[in-house]
Amino acid sequence: TAGITQAPTSQILAAGRSMTLRCTQDMRHNAMYWYRQDLGLGLRLIHYSNTAGTTGKGEVPDGYSVSRANTDDFPLTLASAVPSQTSVYFCASSCVDEQFFGPGTRLTVL
Amino acid sequence: GDSVTQMEGPVTLSEEAFLTINCTYTATGYPSLFWYVQYPGEGLQLLLKATKADDKGSNKGFEATYRKETTSFHLEKGSVQVSDSAVYFCALSESNKLIFGTGTLLAVQP
């Protein structure tokens, strides 16, 4: 079982460009999440989705958008990247109260 | 709002030493509490959890007890191994979302 997959593994992006980080789960979990991980700040929630067709804002949503067209996929889009969005991005899904994490995408915005 | 505070690292120990990583929380309700572990280059994995006061979570020799009176969930292990080297995150659940501490890096030397 793959669990949660994320793509790409890493990316270098020019400031001002757009990018979509992909996340797919095969566990049929209703809830999915996007976090960013920065040194000294832990993981901070960007956006979440409790079920297909619904999304919500987390702690740091500005500059990011998400969609949840189906249960399995939860892409994260940066419309116009800025250097402060350099981070490691983790997607997660949950069953009851346990969250399962993907391997992460390392994004560098120059 | 709810929050989690955990001891700053890095924590450096010799193999077979006793480990304690402190975690305290602030919450208006009665959240579930978690410890997640992140090995180098990987996503987070659930290590253990406790869902109510006085519950003890345990896994792989690690333990943590949900202490409502001290609002704490300290992680302990009696004898660490080099393979335990990782970043450890304390977290609480709030409305189906997780709030993380900033993480504690543990380095175990042979």
Explain what the structure shows.
The complex is a heterodimer of chains A (110) and B (110). Chain A has 110 residues and is mainly beta. Chain A contains no helices and eleven strands. In chain A, the strands form two sheets. In chain A, strands 2, 4, 5, 6, 9, 10 and 11 form a seven-stranded mixed beta sheet that branches. A four-stranded antiparallel beta sheet of chain A has the order 1-3-8-7, with no helix packed on it. In chain A, a hairpin with a 6-residue loop joins strand 5 and strand 6. Chain A is globular and about 40 Å long. Chain B is mostly beta strands and 110 residues long. Helix content of chain B is 0%, strand content 53%. Chain B contains no helices and twelve strands. Chain B has strands at 3-6, 11-14, 19-21, 23-26, 33-38, 44-50, 56-59, 62-65, 75-77, 86-94, 97-100, 104-109. The radius of gyration of chain B is 13 Å and the shape is globular. Chain B starts with a strand and ends with a strand. The mean pLDDT of chain B is 94. The interface between A and B is medium-sized, with 23 and 18 residues.
Structure keywords:
heterodimer, A: 110 residues, mainly beta, 7-stranded mixed sheet, 11 strands, 0% helix, globular, B: 110 residues, 6-stranded mixed sheet, 4-stranded antiparallel sheet
Write the topology of this structure.
The complex is a heterodimer of chains A (110) and B (110).
Chain A: E1 4-7, E2 10-13, E3 19-25, E4 31-38, E5 42-49, E6 56-57, E7 64-66, E8 76-78, E9 87-95, E10 98-101, E11 105-109
Parallel strand pairs in A: 2-11
Antiparallel strand pairs in A: 1-3, 3-8, 4-5, 4-9, 5-6, 7-8, 9-10, 9-11
Chain B: E1 3-6, E2 11-14, E3 19-21, E4 23-26, E5 33-38, E6 44-50, E7 56-59, E8 62-65, E9 75-77, E10 86-94, E11 97-100, E12 104-109
Parallel strand pairs in B: 2-12
Antiparallel strand pairs in B: 1-4, 3-9, 5-6, 5-10, 7-8, 8-9, 10-11, 10-12
